[in-house]
Amino acid sequence: MKIAVEAELQSERTATPLRVKTADLSLDGFYVEMMFTLEVGTKLKIVLWIPYWTWPFAARNEW
Q1: Whole-number Å distance between alpha carbons of 44 and 3
Q2: Is 20:32 a contact under the CB 8 Å cutoff?
Q3: Secondary structure of 3-57 in the HEC alphabet?
Q4: Which one of 13, 18, 45, 49 is at 20 to 30 Å from 39 when CA atoms are compared?
């Protein structure tokens, strides 16, 4: 489903988190709109900013 939410993304290779926006959010994952690409397999820390609620989790770049 096409849902866009704000998110904070931090790569294992960077110290500064990025503010991004998600698209196509589903139970299997989501797409993050970014100005650059990440290497396949990059480990990430992500926090989704849903109104009145935050959802932190670990992830891995699959594409």
Answers
A1: 21
A2: yes
A3: CCCEEEEEECCCCCCEEEEEEEEECCEEEEECCCCCCCCCEEEEEEEECCEEEEE
A4: 49
Instruction: Give the pTM.
Output: 0.67
Residue in the structure block whose two tokens are 């990430």: 44
CA angle 55, 56, 57 (to 5 degrees): 120
Report the alpha-carbon distance of residue 50 to residue 36 in Å, rounded: 24
Residue pLDDT tens, the chain, 63 long: 677 888 899 988 888 998 998 887 777 788 888 888 888 888 888 888 887 888 787 777 776
Instruction: Answer for the pair 43, 12: CB distance below 8 angstroms, yes or no.
Output: yes
* CA proximity to 22, closest of 4, 8, 2, 38: 4
